[in-house]
Amino acid sequence: MTKAFLACSVELDYRTDNYEYCGLLAPHIRTINNQAAELNLLNNFYHDDECDRFSLVLHHIGDWNEMEKLRMWMLERRKASFTPKHPLVLNGMANLASTYMNQGRWDEAEKLQVEVMEARKEKLGSQHPDALTSMANLASTYRKQGRWDEAEKLEVEVMEARNEKLGLQHPETLTSMANLASTYWNQGRWDEAEKLEVEVIEARKEKLGSQHPDTLTSMANLASTYSYQGRWDECYELVNLNLSYKVTLVTITSLSQTSVEIQVEY
Predict the structure, then answer these.
(1) pTM value?
(2) Partner of 75 for a Cys bridge, out of 92, 138, 190, 248, CB 3.0 to 4.6 A?
């Protein structure tokens, strides 16, 4: 009964900033997990919805190890109930892979992501939104591994498909463009990175406004590109503009080149 009340109190939205509340809930979730483990009840202890909501809490406070346990339990239960390529099984694999990424376990994340991507391409087609998300997530892992050419290939395919199906100014298309620009940036291809970053800034300014966090992140990325091109006046202009919106230089540096797509699935 306690776990049900706790789960109902959590809004299942990873975009919601409720770190303080999640910090209060987390000790209770750990206690429930430990008691269930002692009684050997874990395999049938949680409903999927409870597991999703508790995973969100642990995600917000960065407790990746406890989160891994929950997602592993959920995946094993789904595998026992459904076929290997059932959407719920693939979603569970994708979510466990994202946890591995947060732990820096790139090889384990990659293995799951490749399996999910190939299954979704086979069942849904390469341009289905779920298949594109899988491709984008695998590209993100490749970037973390420094495998820029492999990341670029996937990112170009995702960007072109989303541009065709959703339009240039759709948020998912813009995220794809920002990710590809980040790869170009890491390859030292400043002019190509700049071109995409300018497009992303202009679209986000138009859709979201100049002071939206996503717009400011885009501006920070472009400022970083200008700095590597030695275009200091343009870099400082963007930095000063960000500062006028009360974003510090430290924040700009930390945000730069961090537009990474990881989609949590249910």
Answers:
(1) 0.85
(2) 92
